Amino acid sequence: KLVQPATSLGDVYSLLLYPAISSHRSLTPAERAAIGIGDGLVRLSVGIEDTADIQADLAQALAVT
Asked: In the chain, what percentage of residues exceed pLDDT 70?
């Protein structure tokens, strides 16, 4: 709920980036795999929210999956 899906980083808000369809979308799956960017990789950019709030938000999101 706090962490938002995004296509770029560098904001004051916590963002979640999925490189396979954003920063590395021009690479084939084999090229991404060769550099360690698998389909399950996500990048978290932590913003300025309260640390406990971010931890709780991520915990509830992971509990759903």
From this structure: 94
